[in-house]
């Protein structure tokens, strides 16, 4: 199932990775799976702990975005413009 | 003619310019005095990453010859300055305080550097920053973090940490910094100096290592409001090679200083620091007291509400980390060990964001910006907190992490509004407190007018730290 972003756009990262990132318990193997999915294949165990924490921080920020207030007509702050 | 080292250390740009122009102050003697001060004290403050006294003396000698020949270039002529070490100075490294860029060398000057050199400024060196303008204070980098001159056991704020420390310590009357989520205004508040982030696009970012393209601003830290205005007069202007630069005429930003503020409508965004996040009692009291000073000067003060602080913060941090990760992705894949722990972790948070998160944050940014700018139909200037807490101990990692997000500066990177931190007192243990003035786009001159009026009737900018 795709993650609900408030609009119909799907995340490229599997849901089980998101749910792992949003919990407090650190699982090195699953975090390494997340790292590999991101192309981060040179991370030490210390780096993986940081990635795990960072993913939780990002999830909290994502949760704080008030996407429900957006309508399809609300465009990004910077849009493509010809010179 | 020179006065003693202590007096010269805290000479402002406006005063120094007058003395230099009238040949009562030698740029060489002024520079030598500041060089001696840096040599005596910076071993304990760590404001400089690369101190360049030989360049400074050459610049000062050139300025002196020109001025003696009657060729005064303007108020920065013969005046020392420093650059946050994400700003290019041709021929010198731009390290961003990171092992990742150790050994790099800038091929040309940043636009702000070009302007300062053309104005006859005296370059004193490159200043400490949080790693890549985000990760700090860190003790696992090739250079130590800058320390707060008011108490070196405490944090400077960041990320323009060396710029704040050097200005407060009397090493320089002005230092260039950058501001993506508050990085000029935070060290300005915590070090007790003035920091202006002008309207997005007013000052060129070309030649400054980016943190987040759509949020980055370049500006100055000074000790007084008028000095900030003088520097903005020099830095402001369209740069066709900076995609974010605004093709718009600039004005004399000192032009309104000295005018009274009677009848100006000031909106206080109190819910940011009293409801959304509750400020430290001493900071809250200082802001409330500053508002009363403005009321006493004749401003019409009312409370103002906008979206909750957390909404602005979520938008700022989502955009910031997504754009920063895009810049650092390859290095983080190939050499993650070359980053300090704090910076690496902060950039990692951008790695796990989806494209939709970033795009939705920019959509919310457009809405928040539009809503915020509409408030200025009923007010002239907004006042709110900058930092919510005085500087914590620099070695207290938990306190640094806790206070990192406790601030009301990021909203104005989201909206691109001009915003200035001005000193507003001291805590019981002698650490600086500050307020933030925020304007509608391109209303910098009005902010300087109000800031200068406040500064004139309060003693805060006339106090200086005692360096052991």
Structure overview:
- The complex is a heterodimer of chains A (83) and B (468).
- Chain A has 83 residues and is mainly α.
- Chain A has a domain at 15-64.
- Chain A has helices at residues 15-21, 28-37, 45-64.
- In chain A, helix 2 crosses helix 3 (45-64).
- The longest helix of chain A has 20 residues, at 45-64.
- Chain A is elongated, with a radius of gyration of 16 Å.
- The N and C termini of chain A lie far apart (41 Å).
- Chain B is an alpha/beta fold and 468 residues long.
- Chain B has one domain: Amidase signature (AS) domain (Amidase signature (AS) enzymes, Alpha-Beta Complex), CATH 3.90.1300.10.
- Chain B contains 16 helices and eleven strands.
- Chain B has helices spanning 5-9, 13-21, 27-45, 53-68, 111-118, 161-168, 185-191, 225-235, 271-276, 281-296, 309-334, 341-351, 355-374, 397-404, 411-414, 444-456; strands at residues 48-51, 80-84, 122-127, 174-179, 194-197, 217-222, 265-268, 300-303, 381-385, 419-426, 432-439.
- Chain B has an eleven-stranded mixed sheet with strand order 1-3-2-4-6-5-10-11-9-7-8, with helices on both faces.
- In chain B, helix 6 packs parallel to helix 7 (185-191).
- The longest helix of chain B has 26 residues, at 309-334.
């Amino acid at each position: 199932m795709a993650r609900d972003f408030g609009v119909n756009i799907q995340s490229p990262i599997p849901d089980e990775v998101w749910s792992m990132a949003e919990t407090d318990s650190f699982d090195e193997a699953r975090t390494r799976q997340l790292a590999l999915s991101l192309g981060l294949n040179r991370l030490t165990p210390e780096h993986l702990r940081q990635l795990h924490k960072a993913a939780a921080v990002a999830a909290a920020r994502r949760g704080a975005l008030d996407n429900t207030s957006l309508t399809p007509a609300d465009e990004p702050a910077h849009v493509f413009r010809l010179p | 003619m020179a006065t003693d080292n202590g007096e010269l250390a805290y000479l402002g740009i406006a005063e120094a310019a007058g003395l230099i122009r009238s040949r009562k102050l030698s740029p060489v003697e002024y520079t030598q005095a500041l060089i001696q001060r840096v040599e005596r004290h910076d071993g304990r403050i760590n404001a400089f990453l690369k101190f360049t006294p030989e360049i400074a003396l050459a610049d000062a000698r050139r300025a002196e010859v020109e001025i003696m020949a009657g060729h005064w270039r303007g108020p920065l002529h013969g005046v020392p300055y420093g650059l946050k070490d994400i700003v290019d100075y041709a021929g010198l490294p731009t390290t961003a305080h990171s092992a990742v860029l150790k050994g790099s060398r800038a091929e040309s000057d940043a636009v702000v550097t070009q302007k300062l050199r053309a104005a006859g400024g005296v370059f004193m060196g490159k200043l400490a920053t949080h790693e890549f303008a985000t990760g700090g204070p860190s003790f696992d980098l090739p250079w130590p973090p800058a320390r707060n001159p008011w108490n070196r056991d405490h944090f400077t704020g960041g990320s323009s940490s060396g710029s704040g420390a050097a200005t407060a310590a009397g090493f320089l009357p002005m230092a260039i910094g950058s501001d993506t989520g508050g990085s000029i205004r935070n060290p300005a508040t915590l070090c007790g100096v003035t920091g202006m982030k002008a309207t997005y696009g007013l000052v060129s970012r070309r030649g400054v290592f980016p943190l987040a393209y759509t949020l980055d601003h370049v500006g100055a830290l000074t000790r007084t409001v008028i000095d900030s205005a003088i520097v903005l007069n020099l830095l402001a202007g369209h740069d066709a090679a900076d995609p974010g630069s605004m093709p718009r005429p600039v004005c004399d930003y000192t032009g309104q200083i000295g005018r009274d503020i009677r009848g100006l409508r000031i909106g206080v965004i109190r819910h940011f620091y009293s409801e959304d996040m509750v400020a430290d009692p001493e900071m809250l009291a200082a802001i409330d007291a500053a508002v009363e000073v403005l009321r006493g000067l004749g401003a019409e003060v009312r409370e103002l509400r906008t979206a909750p602080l957390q909404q602005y913060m979520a938008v700022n941090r989502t955009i910031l980390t997504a754009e920063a990760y895009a810049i650092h992705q390859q290095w983080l894949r190939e050499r993650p060990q070359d980053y300090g722990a704090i910076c690496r972790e902060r950039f990692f948070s951008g790695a796990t964001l989806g494209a939709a998160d970033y795009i939705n944050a920019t959509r919310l940014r457009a809405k928040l910006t539009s809503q915020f700018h509409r408030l200025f139909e009923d007010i002239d200037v907004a006042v709110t907190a900058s930092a919510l807490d005085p500087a914590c101990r620099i070695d207290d990692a938990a306190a640094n992490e806790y206070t990192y997000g406790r601030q009301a500066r990021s909203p104005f990177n989201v909206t691109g509004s001009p915003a200035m931190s001005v000193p507003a007192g001291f805590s019981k243990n002698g650490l600086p407190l500050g307020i933030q003035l925020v304007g509608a786009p391109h209303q910098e001159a009005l902010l300087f007018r109000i800031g200068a009026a406040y500064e004139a009737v309060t003693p805060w900018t006339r106090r200086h730290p005692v360096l052991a």
